[in-house]
Every structure is written in structure tokens, then in C-alpha cells.
Amino acid sequence: MSESRALKPMQASRQYMAEIVGEESLHGHRMQAGAILDLMDVLAAKVASTHAGSSVVTLSFDRVELSHPIFHQDMVRLEGQVVAMGRSSIMVAVDVYRQDFLSREYQPIQHSYITMVAIDDHRRPKRDIPGLAIQSEADHKAHEEALAHKARTTEWLRLQELLNQRQKLDVAEVEEVFNKEKRELLAPEETELRVRRLFMPRHTNVLGTIFGGDILLWMDRVATQTARQFTRNRNVITLAMNRIFFNEPIFTSDLVEMVAQVVYVRRYTLEVEITVTLERADGTVLPSHSGHFTVLNYDEGGFKRPILTGLRLDAGDQNGLRRYFQARERHRFWRKGLETSP
């Protein structure tokens, strides 16, 4: 299809941020991943608005996987650029680097895609934003990688939906040995953590809605607290976050409820599923978004610590069994992708 709109070169959108993260009093302690997710969202918004020449909102966060822990008082650099476009959607690639003290060099720790939507003054999608001019060999490579990732995400969503349509699941078919070996078993509903809050005006952007990064920061805190209660261990950290799609804007007048539950357990990691619901000022209740957080259990020395608690799976609880099955397949899908990637 021919492109009739004006085009902007990919490099025109490139932006970076550099920040000393965390608290001085916690120097050397691991940081929660939510703080980095927040920075990624801020940078992606800056990149997208630079390209669009308009306000933007976060539509989705694709899978985020941190390959190296980040510590308080680390120097962190984030780089982003537009890599693919829709009519009003803007796909931004964000790379995160951490400066190593010994070598003084920046180590890559994260590469992810964040989709923003350009909007007009009435918060409607803005359709007349510039397209993307792909010029150099590096541009083509970045663009093709983004399209390949988008196709892979589409395939993952399709597989998850197929699993969701399964009529009847059997425990023997679904449960893994990692779960069977645990000393203690809890029913999925026994792992639930439910929190509610109102956001303050300081959390709002120029549109009067809550920053997506603030939501992600909160979700990460709830995920790690859920993991702490489940493992009876304070030393947990988020390793990865699966795709989050922001269906509804959140306002300061909304009462926001977040429900978290452990849905999958391996030897050293577990997955927490989080769903967010909004109660508007007029009493309307709306599902907002959901996400999945993979959390690592470790000891005081920083080494992986076995999780002794598992999930009690029951064929009578098809919902809990299906969520475990979907989480198991999510893990296998993304592990396979990492093994086959160049």
C-alpha cells in the first residue's frame, strides 16, 4: 500500500535518558524492576511525541526481560527510537544499559517494545501523524526486527486464546514436576492479594490521566509483595513482565483495584498474574488491564533460593488449572524464542 502522508526519518525520533537510580541509603541493594519500567515508559512517550508532534498515551508494553539486576545508585542509560508505525500507533524500541563499575562500560540489560498512540485534544486517536522513512541499513534491520517481534507477539496471543478455549483440563496433563515436589501446597485463591487506591494529581500527565509508568511501578510492587507472602521470603525480584495492554485511561477520580494471584511455580521462580479494575465516579466498573510478572526467589547472599511452596491444582477448579496451563505455555513459548534467537 502506498504511503500518502508525510514521512519522518527514523533517526529524527531518537532520544536517550541517563539517570542515577534509586536511593543513596540503599546503595548496592537490588532495585525493583518497576522503577526501570517507569523510566522506559517516560522515554517511549518522549520518542513517540517527538515523531508525532502531538500528545501520546501508552497502549501496550511488550515482554520485558531484565538480563542483569539493577542496584540502587547504578548509572542507567536508556535509548529509544520509533521502529514501526500504524495510522495512529507508534512502536518504540527501548534499550536499557547499566554502567559497570569495574570496566566503566555500559552493559545492555534490556530490549523491549512499547506501543504508544498519538491523540488529539479530545483524547481521540490522531490519524494525520507523519509516517516513518526507513533509509539506512540499520533502519531496515531495526524495522524488520520490530515486525518480527510483533508477529511473534500476535502468535503468542493466538496460542493463549486457544488454551483459554479448552473445555476440560486434567491435572495429570497440566502439572509439572516442579510443582509436585513442593513441601507445601496452596490453592490458587489462597495466594490472592487485593489492593485498592486513588491516585493523586502528581501522578497525572498533561492529559490529566495517570502515567502508564506509575501504573507499572505499582503493579510490580504488588507482584513482588504477592511473591513474598507466597514464598515467606522478603528477597524476591522481578525478572520479566509479559505484555500489558492499557484498555482504559485512569483518572484521579477513579478508584483503582488490583488483584494479584500466583498462577505458576517453578524451582526458583513463580509467575504472578495481576488484573486491574476501575470504578468511575458515576459507579461504572471497567476492566482496565492485566499483566504477568515472573519473580525470582533468592537468599541474603543473592543466590537463587528454592521455592518450597507450590499450587494445589484441582480438576474441580478449572479456572485455576487453566491459568496454570497458560502460564506454563507462556514460559515455554518465550524460552524457545530465546533459544532460537541469533
How are the SSEs ordered, and which strands pair?
Layout lengths: L6 E3 L5 E6 L13 H19 L2 E7 L2 E2 L9 E11 L3 E11 L6 E14 L11 E3 L3 H28 L6 H4 L2 H4 L3 E3 L6 E5 L14 H20 L4 E6 L2 E2 L9 E11 L3 E11 L5 E13 L11 E3 L6 H23 L2
Parallel strand pairs: 1-8, 9-16
Antiparallel strand pairs: 2-5, 3-7, 3-12, 4-11, 5-6, 6-7, 10-13, 11-15, 13-14, 14-15
What structural keywords apply?
2 domains; alpha+beta; Thiol Ester Dehydrase, Chain A; six-stranded antiparallel β-sheet; single chain; globular
Structure description:
With 342 residues, the protein is of the alpha+beta class. 29% of the residues lie in helices and 32% in strands. It has a six-stranded antiparallel beta sheet. A six-stranded antiparallel beta sheet has the order 4-11-15-14-13-10. A two-stranded parallel sheet has the order 1-8. Helix 1 runs antiparallel to helix 5 (212-231) and helix 2 (137-164) runs antiparallel to helix 6 (318-340).
